[in-house]
Design goal:
Strand content: 15-25%
CATH architecture: 3-Layer(aba) Sandwich
Helix content: 25-40%
Largest sheet: 8 strands, mixed
CATH superfamily: Thiamin diphosphate (ThDP)-binding fold, Pyr/PP domains
Order of helices and strands: HEHEHEHHEHEHEHEHEHH
Number of strands: 8
Shape: globular
Number of helices: 11
Distance between the termini: 56 Å
CATH topology: Rossmann fold
Bound molecules: thiamine diphosphate, magnesium ion
Number of domains: 1
Length: about 280
């Protein structure tokens, strides 16, 4: 079965989002070969050009409000931990409007994957600067060049608790597919920043010659942070991964609230048991 939907694709020709969609579909196919079921994949997205991936890939999920994609994904995961939850965000959606939601999902080590489409701009709303816009970049809201220091998404996410942190590139489908497979297989909060040009604002040439591959994985969080801080912003690879207890297991062990839902009386009984002095 294909992933096609009936939605008309309105991404600009040449947009990096096409590469992200292809790599994601490849990753799902690869994971299906490893035994994961298509119906257990659930996607969510925020609002923006990136978010339209929700309309263009035939999987179940929630198309949420701007910046709320991670909290929707968290809700799905803790309701039914058996699902593979993947959420898509833009740089504006996830590190601007939705910054707190992104950080808290990482802090909790929710067992889900966040794919952050980094085009360095609010593309859908036609070119305002974002949390990741490079200094000096000129657009309609920054006609004299952006003068704020962008976040370093990689070191930020390592710092706040993501247990798998990587950067990849929409122009390297093989690298992105492989990174997506590893991120989805990782138990815990996995974060992939994906570099992607948005056609009205960037050119592929700005990326092609600058992409560098990370040559080694780090052995500790401190080392990963050091590498992430010093790396060129076009360095791609897995910066950090660690095994850490995931949120839903800390919260209620192996319980699956959807599959093992309790009656009201049983719930009250359990609550009273906990509250007993
Ligand atoms: C609460 C709220 N604020 C603002 C908007 C307007 N808005 C829609 S998309 C967007 C920016 C999207 O930028 P980004 O997340 O980087 O996605 P891209 O379009 O670049 O893929 C904004 C500000 C909105 N829909 N809701
Ligand atoms: Mg953007």
């Amino acid at each position: 079965m294909g992933f096609e939907t009936n939605a008309e694709i309105t991404w600009c020709p040449g947009c990096g989002n096409y590469g992200i969609r292809t790599a994601f579909q490849n990753a799902v196919l690869e994971l299906e070969k490893k035994g994961l079921k298509r119906e257990d994949f659930i996607i969510s997205s925020g609002i923006g050009c990136h978010a339209k991936i929700f309309d263009y890939v035939n999987l179940s999920g929630i198309y949420g409000l701007h910046g709320r994609n991670s909290s929707n994904a968290e809700g799905v995961k803790i309701a039914n931990p058996d699902l593979n939850v993947i959420t898509f965000s833009g740089d504006g959606n996830g590190l601007g409007e939705g910054l707190a939601h992104t950080i808290y999902a990482a802090k909790r080590n929710q067992d889900m994957t966040l794919v952050l489409h980094n085009n360095g701009v609010y593309a859908l709303t036609t070119g305002q600067f974002s949390s990741l816009t490079a200094p000096g970049w000129k657009g309609p809201s920054t006609p004299r060049g952006s003068f704020e220091i962008p976040f370093n998404a990689i070191s930020l996410l390592i710092e706040v608790g993501a247990s798998f942190v990587a950067r990849s590139y929409a122009g390297d489908i093989k690298h992105l597919t492989g990174t997506l497979v590893k991120a989805i297989e990782h138990k815990g909060f996995s974060f992939i920043e994906v570099l992607q040009p948005a056609m009205p604002y960037h050119k592929w040439e700005e990326y092609k010659d600058k992409i560098e591959y990370l040559d080694r994985e780090s052995n500790s969080k401190e080392e990963a942070l050091k590498i992430a801080r010093n790396a060129h912003r076009f360095t791609i690879g897995i910066f950090y991964q660690e095994p850490r207890e995931v949120y839903h297991e800390s919260l209620y062990g192996s319980l699956n609230p959807v599959k093992e839902s309790l009656s009201r009386n049983k719930r009250l009984e359990k609550i009273n048991e906990i509250l007993k002095p």
